[in-house]
């Protein structure tokens, strides 16, 4: 056990809980880190961090594009060990989960980003990075938003925020 101290592992948890007559389900990916003083520590769920970042930028939580974007960022984080194609791998994976097609996922994400970039939290969007904005459209690409937010969520998780 001492050999694993200080290492981080990702764990996918699926729990079924009974509350009175109701069954509740808890599912998510958690990063578990070991340290000398506290043993195992479950880090903040990546999905919560992703939602927090998206809401802070002004993404409406009920929009399909936001839901697909959240799932896409989560997928990107899960596949962090290798290079993935947004168009050929990420969009189809999100589409399969939500019983739609990849073109619909791409379009909804793009439309939501366009709306947020014109109506969102301008200060936070400016902090997000003006160097990422595409000259023709005046907004970042879907892939840039996914990559940047995934990196930001991972960094905040490592720093323990």
TrEMBL record:
<protein>
    <submittedName>
        <fullName>Sporulation initiation factor Spo0A C-terminal domain-containing protein</fullName>
    </submittedName>
</protein>
<dbReference type="GO" id="GO:0003743">
    <property type="term" value="F:translation initiation factor activity"/>
</dbReference>
<keyword id="KW-0648">Protein biosynthesis</keyword>
<dbReference type="InterPro" id="IPR014879">
    <property type="entry name" value="Spo0A_C"/>
</dbReference>
<feature type="domain" description="Sporulation initiation factor Spo0A C-terminal">
    <location>
        <begin position="50"/>
        <end position="153"/>
    </location>
</feature>
<dbReference type="Pfam" id="PF08769">
    <property type="entry name" value="Spo0A_C"/>
</dbReference>
<dbReference type="InterPro" id="IPR016032">
    <property type="entry name" value="Sig_transdc_resp-reg_C-effctor"/>
</dbReference>
<dbReference type="InterPro" id="IPR036388">
    <property type="entry name" value="WH-like_DNA-bd_sf"/>
</dbReference>
<keyword id="KW-0396">Initiation factor</keyword>
